[in-house]
Amino acid sequence: MKFLVVDDEKDVEILFRQKLRKEISSGEIEIEFAFSANEALELLRSRKPPDVMYIFSDINMPGMTGLDLLDKVKVEFPEIKVSMISAYGDGENYDRAMSSGAKGFFTKPIDFDTLKEEIQGFLNK
Amino acid sequence: MNEAAFAEYTKNLVQQGAVGSDEKYVTENRPTDLYLHFLPFLQGMLYVGNDAPLKEQELQLVQNLAEAFSTAYARYEDFTKLEAAKSAVEAAMDELRATQSQLVQQEKLASLGQLTAGIAHEIKNPLNFVNNFSEVSIEMIEEVLEEREKTRLSDRLGRESTDGTLVDDILKDIKVNLQKIHKHGTRANGIVTSMLLHARGGSGKKEPTDLNALVREYVNLCFHGMRAGKNPIHVEIVLDLDTEMGLTPLVKEDFTRVIINLCTNAFDAMRSKSISDQSGNYVPRLRITTKKEAQTMTMVVEDNGPGIPDEIKDKIMQPFFTTKKGTEGTGLGLSISHDIVKAHGGSLNVEIKESEGSAFVIQLPIV
Ligand SMILES: Nc1ncnc2c1ncn2[C@@H]1O[C@H](COP(=O)(O)OP(=O)(O)O)[C@@H](O)[C@H]1O
Ligand SMILES: [Mg+2]
Ligand SMILES: [Mg+2]
């Protein structure tokens, strides 16, 4: 099962690979990374057939924001699930994400226990 | 005044030491009827009593005396008036100074407020790494301990022991994690330090400063402040920074306020344009350019907002001039920025743009 993590902070890759190392090494999940919304869209468009099932995206990134990415993904790849991960905990961003069809909303610092539950819940479906 | 009263009065004067003795004033044949002469002047009146009417010449003399007295008196009055005026002006100045520093303080707080939202966001990112890299390192150390236990167990059972590369790999990962924790801890510290510097004010001294780094840091904080605030807009930020910039002498905590003010104004302007935009393809863009020349450095903060109408172009730097509604504007941002740049021996100007938007140009001497 392939996940895509989108964040402009490069260290996110090392963090996710370590935090989810068991799930990755057991082959349960695969994670790819994109460091901007545009990079994420390019990656998604280049996969035929699409292989990413679930996207975790940061909101605040230079260039296109995570919320804009959410809108685009919902139009172009409606079958892919998207959850937001943001340092903004405010209601406005949350409401905007949820009304645009986000599956979940996680705040930074990320609580990986909750994130793993979300992943497990998705895998068990 | 009768005789007895007069005698009493002169005695009194002698007692007070006002006159030497009363003999001079008490003569044998005192006149009982006096011819009085009144010579009024601006502030009062001189009157002379004599046993005979004063002659023309004498009168002229007394008239001169009255005039001289009037002049002296006027001088004295002018002087006290001047004194009073001076202290009134001084009091007004003191009050003005107090009000001014209060306003400057308020503006400072306002721009700090804009920053705090940005700072909260910026701190949660490094904090995310500090928390999670330390948590994962603890998990990894537990794994190392488990591996060690396994090795010990198989040693005891005489079985072939694991080759230890797994433990080595985990230790390498832990080392990387600790480096990340340190990096992001330092990053968070830098953010808090610059916030405090901004709030408290620093030494007030010019220090050689990496202006490009300052621009990067504060434009970013400002952007996140705007994004976390009311009515966030999507902005493309272009930093075109001269790589040969070197160091510029700056009072950091002051100059950062100039960057914040100019960026906030640009965001406000572009927000108003994006609200009124009908075409639907308006992309707000903030461009900041730095350029080093022989004696000066130039920094340009440019937006593609609605621009500034000709009628108000020469008013915008004035204190309290604002076109923003209610509490949205103080009208102090540009005026304070202008003063700060001037205090650095530089200039802040608005550039008339051919196309659209506004450009604020700062020029500072390098040496
Ligand atoms: N980038 C800009 N684009 C358009 N107008 C601007 C810009 N910057 C400043 N102004 C105008 O100058 C006025 C004064 O700005 P300022 O002194 O910062 O006060 P304030 O932002 O509180 O109104 C603003 O109200 C606005 O009309
Ligand atoms: Mg980000
Ligand atoms: Mg302003």
Which labels suit this protein?
heterodimer, A: 125 residues, alpha/beta, Rossmann fold, five-stranded parallel β-sheet, 6 helices, 5 strands, globular, B: 367 residues, alpha+beta, Heat Shock Protein 90, five-stranded mixed β-sheet, two-stranded antiparallel sheet, 56% helix, 15% strand, elongated, binds adenosine-5'-diphosphate, binds magnesium ion
Please explain how this structure is put together.
In chain A, 46% of the residues lie in helices and 22% in strands. Chain A is α/β, with parallel strands linked by helices and 125 residues long. Chain A has one domain: 3-Layer(aba) Sandwich (Rossmann fold). Chain A has a 5-stranded parallel beta sheet, with helices on both faces. Chain A is globular. Chain B has a domain at 204-367: Heat Shock Protein 90, CATH 3.30.565. Helix content of chain B is 56%, strand content 15%. With 367 residues, chain B is of the alpha+beta class. In chain B, the strands form 3 sheets. A 5-stranded mixed beta sheet of chain B has the order 4-6-7-9-8. Chain B is built from 6 helices and 9 strands; from the N terminus they run αββααβαββαββαββ. Classes of the chains: A alpha/beta (125), B alpha+beta (367). The interface between A and B is medium-sized, with 20 and 27 residues. The structure holds adenosine-5'-diphosphate and magnesium ion (2 copies). Residues 261, 265-266, 269, 303, 305, 308, 316, 321-324, 329-335, 358 of chain B line the site of adenosine-5'-diphosphate.
